[in-house]
Amino acid sequence: MKTPHPHADILRAIVEDKDTEIEIGSSSFGWSATDFGFMVKHPDFIYRIKPKPFIVNGVECPRPVEKSIEVTSTRWPALKIETYPSKNIPMSFGKTREFYFANDTDLMVTFNAMILPFEEFR
């Protein structure tokens, strides 16, 4: 039996949808656009289908990167959201979530979209 291409799922997606964008991953530089020809010639690199953006307060934002090997790098920009409940409420604990982004621009687009409704309170 023939071994399938290591990125067969991405190749199928490209065949099904010609507008599929692919990116190459690097723990040093994040995700960056690449093309089909490069992926075929260099199958040992890490690739992904570029995630579709999502809407935050009416602004199109890039999706955070998945938690995988790239998040172990300290170079990934992160958005950290924390809550600080009142100390007067018994058993109240703060919540924290971190989201990692491919680059600083993606991080700031999402951050600015998130705080948009609160701008009048500055």
Concise structural overview:
The protein folds into two domains: 1-50, no CATH class; 53-122, no CATH class. 22% of the residues lie in helices and 25% in strands. It has helices at residues 8-16, 36-41, 104-115; strands at residues 22-26, 30-34, 46-49, 54-56, 59-61, 78-82, 96-100.
Explain what this protein looks like in three dimensions:
It is a single chain. The protein is an alpha+beta fold. The longest helix is centred in the C-terminal third of the chain and has 12 residues, at 104-115. The strands form 3 sheets. Strands 2-1-3 form a 3-stranded antiparallel β-sheet. The chain has a two-stranded antiparallel ribbon with strand order 4-5. A hairpin with a 3-residue loop joins β1 and β2 (30-34). 22% of the residues lie in helices and 25% in strands. The protein has 2 domains: 1-50, no CATH class; 53-122, no CATH class. The chain is elongated. It has 3 helices and 7 strands.
Produce the secondary structure layout.
Blueprint: H1 8-16, E1 22-26, E2 30-34, H2 36-41, E3 46-49, E4 54-56, E5 59-61, E6 78-82, E7 96-100, H3 104-115
Antiparallel strand pairs: 1-2, 1-3, 4-5, 6-7
